[in-house]
Amino acid sequence: MNENVLTSLTTLLLVSMGFLMGLTLNIQPAKAIGTICIRADGSIYPTAAPISTFDNITYVFTGNIIDSSIVVERDHIVVDGSGFMLQGPRDYTGISLTNRTNVTIKNLEISGFNDGISLNRSSQNVISGTNITNNIDVGIAVTNSPNNIFAENSIMNNTNYGVYIQDLSNNNSIIGNNITNSMNGIYVAYSVGDTILGNNMTACTDFGILLQSCQKDNLIRNTISNSGRGIYASYCSNNNITGNTILNSLGGIWLGLWSRDNTLRNNNISNNHYNFGVNPYHMDIKFWVHDVDVSNTVNGKPIYYWIDKRNMTVPLDAGQVTLVNCTWITVQNLSLTTNWQGVQLASTTESTITNNNIADNWDGVKIHIRSSNNNISGNSIVDNVAGVWLGYSSSNRVFSNDIKNNNKDVGIYEDTERGGIVLRGAKNHSIFENNIANNVFGIEHVYSSSNYIYHNNITGNTQQVYSPSDNTSWVNNWDRGYPFGGNYWGDYTGVDVYSGFCQNETGNDGIKDMPYTIDANNIDEYPLMGMFSDFNVSSEYHIQTICNSSISDFQFKDNAIKFNVSGEHGTPGFCRICIPIALVNGTYKVFVNGKEVSYTLLACSNSTHSYLYFAYNHSTQEVTIIPEFTSHLMMSLFMLTMLLTLRIYGRKHDL
C-alpha cells in the first residue's frame, strides 16, 4: 500500500476514535463540579452546571448532578428538577436554603447526602413532589424557619428523620408526604401552630410523629403503620390530634412528660402493642387534663377519659379507662387490653376496679398521684409489663386478684419497673389474698414503706421480691402476726414442726417455723406452709384455708363445709381452716372421703374463730366438716324416724 495512503488512513482512524470518545463522554452524567450556587443576582455558578434558566426565576435541571450540592442564595424562584437526580457527597446537604423566602423546590430526586434539604431562618418556601431518599441523617431539616410547606414528597430510607423541624419553626405545613423506613417519621420541637396533615408513615422504627415542647399544632388524618410509637407528645399543650389512624405498631398515642390540655378526636388506634396512654410524670393534676372523648377508639372500642366525674359506672364497651380527679367510680366486667395503661387512676378516690380482664398492657392497673381508698379486687391481671403499679399514692386495697405472667419483654427499656405488683413512693396500701405467679418480679418495691403485704401466694416468679440496692432502709409489713400469718413463698422450703407466737410449741399450725427474709428490714415472720384461700360463704362470713393441696368445689350448706383436695398421689397433705364461730359453732367432726379423721383445734382459736388443723394422704379427696352437735342431732332424728316408722307399722299390723 502507498505510504501516503497508509498515513492518511491512520490519521482518519485516530480522528474517528477521538470523535466517538467525545460522543461517549457527552452522554455521561455531569462530573463532580463542587458546590453549585444559584446566586442572588440570578446567575448559576459554575456555568457548566446542568441547570438552566431563561428568566432568573425558574431554574430547570437538564441532567443528573453527581457528588455536588446546591446552595440557593436567591429569593422568589422555582427549582424544577424535571425528574433528574441530585446525588451527594455524604458529608454535605443536598440543597441548602439560609435566610431564603419564597423558594419552590419540586420534581427532583435527592439522595446520598447527610441531609437531603435544609432550611435555616427561611420562610414561605415550598418543597413538593420530590423524592428524598437514602440520606445519612435527615430528609428535610428545618431550623428557625416558619411558614413553609412540605407537600406530596416521597421521603424514604433516611436514617434518623424523615422531616425534622425545630427552634421556632412555626406555622409550617407538612402535607401528604409518604415517609418510610426512617428511625423517626416527623419530629417537631419548640414550635407553634404547625400543621401535619394527611401524611403516611410506615416502618419508622422509633416514632411516627414525635412532638416536643409544641403548642397549638394540628395533627390531622395521618396514617402511621408498622412503626415504633405512633404519636408521642412531651412538654406539649393545646395541640389538636384528630382523625389519625395508627396501626400495627409498638405504640399508638402517648401523651407524656409535662403535657396538658391537648384535644383528641376521632382517632382510630388499632392492633398496636400499646394503643393509648397518658403519663405526664408530674404531681400537679393539671398535667393530667386532656380533652379525650369517646370518638377515640382502641381496637374499635371507645376510650373513657373521665375528669371530675362522680358516682358513675364505666360502660361495658370501654377499651381503655383513665380517671382523673374522680370519686365513686366503678370499673367492672371490662376487657382492657393492649394499652399503655389498661385502667389508670390519678387523684381519684373511693372507686372500685373489679372483675375485669386486664391483659397485654404496659401497666395493667396504674394508681397514680394522691389516689386513695380505692379497691382493686377480683381481676385477672396477666401478660402485662407491670400488673399493678402503685405510685405516689396511699391507702388503696389490692386483693383477691390473679396477677400472673407479667413478664413481657421490654427490649431496650430493661430498667422499667415491671412484674406482678410495683410499689413506687407508695405508703399504707393493703395487698392481700392475691395469686402472684410467674412474673419477672413478684413484687417490686422502690422507696415505699408501711405497706401491708400478707396472705398472698407468691410463686414461680423469676425473683419473688425485687428492690434496688439502695432501698433497704424502706420497711414494709410482710405478715399480720400470729396466728394470721404472712405469705406463701413458693421458693421457701421451710418446715412446720412447731406452733405458737414464737414458733416454739410442739405441733403443726400451717406456718413455717423460720421467717422468710427479703432483706435486713423486710421479713415475713410467719410464712405460710401452703397456699392461702379465702371463701366468701355469706354476705358476712369468710372461711379461710392454708393448704398444700389444690382446693375445688368449696361449698357451705346446711351447716356443713365441703370441698375437694387433690395433690400428687401418696404425698402428705394438710389443711388449716379458720371457721367463724358465728357461722359454725361448737366442736367439730372432720371426714375425709367419708372417714372421720382426727384434727387439732389450735391454741390460737378464740371466741370468734376456730382454727382446725388436720392431715391426710394425697389423691382426690372429699373433705366434710360438720359441728359435733349436728351429728348428734342427725342421730336423734334417725332414732325418731325409726320410732315413727315402727309405730306406723304397729298400727297397720293391728288392723
The CATH class label of the domain at 538-628 is Mainly Beta
Low-confidence stretches: 1-28, 630-635
**Would you give the CATH topology of the domain at 538-628?**
Immunoglobulin-like
Can you count the helices? 2
User: Could you say what the CATH architecture of the domain at 538-628 is?
Assistant: Sandwich
Question: How many beta-strand runs?
Answer: 71
Q: Tell me the distance between the termini.
A: 163 Å
Main beta sheet, described?
A: 19 strands, mixed
Helix content: under 10%
Beta content comes to 35-45%
Category from helices, strands and their pairing: mainly beta
CA radius of gyration is 38 Å
Report the principal-axis shape: elongated
Can you offer a commentary on this structure?
This protein has 655 residues and is mainly beta. The protein has a domain of 91 residues: Immunoglobulin-like, CATH 2.60.40. The chain is built from two helices and 71 strands. The chain has a 19-stranded mixed beta sheet, with no helix packed on it. A hairpin with a 7-residue loop joins strand 69 and strand 70. The longest helix has 27 residues. It is elongated and about 115 Å long.
In short:
The chain is mainly beta.
Structural descriptors:
19-stranded mixed beta sheet, 8% helix, 45% strand, 655 residues, Immunoglobulin-like, 2 helices, elongated, single chain, mainly beta
